[in-house]
Amino acid sequence: MTKGIATLVGFIAVLLWGVLALLTVGSAPTPPFLLNAICFAIGGTLGLIWTAASGGLGQLRSVSLYVYVLGTLGLFGYHALYFTALRLAPAAEASLIAYLWPLLIVLFSSLLPGERLRAGHVIGALVGFAGAGLIVTGGGAGFQAEAITGYLIALSCALTWSTYSVMSRRFGKVPTASVAIFCIASAALSLPLHLAFETTAWPIGTTGWTSAILLGLGPVGLAFYVWDIGVKRGDIQLLGTASYAAPLLSTLVLILAGVATPTWSLAVAAALITAGALLAARASLKAD
Q1: Helices (H), the chain
Q2: CA atoms of 22 and 36, how far apart (whole Å)
Q3: Does residue 192 have a cis bond before it (omega within 30 degrees)?
Q4: How far is CA 173 from CA 59, 80, 178, in A?
């Protein structure tokens, strides 16, 4: 698989995350950790079935415990910290801080062997972050001192996912099938947290269960497998910058579904995110 193809495969994850919000809304009133347990169980089980069908179960035994712990902390830790941040700080501001992860991926990637960080990558990531900020805040967020704990947890969230993504590059020989174990372990960790802190509420009717199942198949399932391929074999700097398309796509999907309304800030955000991706792509082409 070429570097360009791997980057495109990784971008499938961004497209899938674009429907995360809509499907999450459809799965209401299921609480976050229960939804996590359901979706990660689906994504992990299907991954194991595929691995078994392709004769790859044996390769999972060669993966070190350290990698399994790292992967589980990446997937489970990101979601646990994100949901906690949203409970302790205003949603818009917490989400904006959490969306520092694409920028951090671009910056941290400079520590990887053979990678060179160019000005275009950094500028593109910053421009994309500005666009994501407009979407998340609606153009009018204001930070609150009393929510500092939530903000710090949101920053930890961004650090967790960016570190997981960049560290995955360092374990390029670890099979993508290992993501199935990450998902199963994340589901196992989510269940006791649900029992301890949440009131059980299952998805309601066909819409609720369809949304939950689609989440497990796509944004909280397949997305992690293709993302693994992208960060390990693709252009991680370009992929990091392009990830700012996720909040844009998510908002567009919500608008098309009639859940959200279009605003002037969305148009500006779209222009900023597109410009940021183009700047990063140009820098990557120069690097090649």
Answers
A1: 3-17, 20-26, 32-53, 57-60, 65-88, 91-98, 101-108, 119-137, 148-170, 178-197, 205-217, 223-233, 236-242, 245-256, 264-287
A2: 15
A3: no
A4: 11, 28, 11
Specify the number of domains making up the chain: 1
- Measure CA 2 to chain center: 23
Q: Of 238, 204, 177, 175, whose CA–CA distance to 8 is shortest?
A: 238
Q: In terms of Cα–Cα distance, which of 74, 71, 13 is closest to 236?
A: 13
What does pTM read for this prediction? 0.86
Four-point Cα dihedral 242, 24, 146, 74, nearest 10: -60
Assess contact for 225 and 176: CB atoms under 8 A: yes
Residue 127, domain extent: 3-287
Q: CA triplet 14, 18, 21: central angle to 5 degrees?
A: 135
pLDDT tens for 104-134 read 888 888 777 777 777 888 888 888 888 777 7
How far is residue 86 from each of residues 14, 67, 94, measured CA to CA in Å? 21, 28, 6
Can you tell me whether residue 56 is helix, strand or coil?
coil
Two structure tokens written together for 216 = 């497990």
